[in-house]
Amino acid sequence: MATMMMKPEEGEGGEMEGKSCPRATQDITLNLKNRGEAIDSANYGPENPALPNTGFWREMANEWDVSTDEAKTARCGNCAAFNRSPMMLQCIAKGVGSEGDPWATIKAGDLGYCEIFDFKCAAQRTCRAWIAKEEDEGEGEGEGEEYGGGENAQMEGGEYED
Predict the structure, then answer these.
(1) Residue 16 in 3-state DSSP?
(2) What tens digit of pLDDT does each residue of 123-148 get?
(3) N or C: which end of the chain has fewer CB within 10 A?
(4) What secondary structure does DSSP assign to 68-107, as a single string?
(5) Where are the chain's structural domains?
(6) Per-residue pLDDT reduced to its tens digit, 42-93
(7) Which helix (H) or strand (E) holds 31?
(8) Is 0.85 topped by the overall pTM?
(9) What Rg, from alpha-carbon coordinates, does the chain have?
């Protein structure tokens, strides 16, 4: 699934630093559709990562031919396709909107963007498409960042521009 970019209408604010945000960061219906496809085709989950989810992790371990403990280490937050660059987090914050605190939502869900399935993704989940990062991956400018254990990688001032 290729990332669809969105050039916002004037005043929508979906453009960051001259670059467009992925449409799914701004369009909740598209985001939910893409997340549903990830659930159906790649077993995106578990639904509630705070629970033991024994059956889910056993299924993933069997599919990957690893132990359940090893399967539990393959999370979206350390997947090569998980994008938490400052620009992407700005896009996500814009899409969440100003009703409430978008940065609190991003932090609570440990959100990033899945570059494979094109949706806002929670760092503590996983899917069959998980890709191990190269050791130096994410070090270059503009690359996605490895999930930083709950850090809120906001732009200066902690807010997004209107």
Answers:
(1) strand
(2) 999 999 999 988 765 544 344 444 34
(3) C
(4) HHHHTT--GGGBTTEE--HHHHHHHHHHH-SSS-HHHHHH
(5) 21-131
(6) 999 999 999 999 999 999 999 999 999 999 999 999 999 999 999 999 999 9
(7) helix 28-42
(8) no
(9) 16
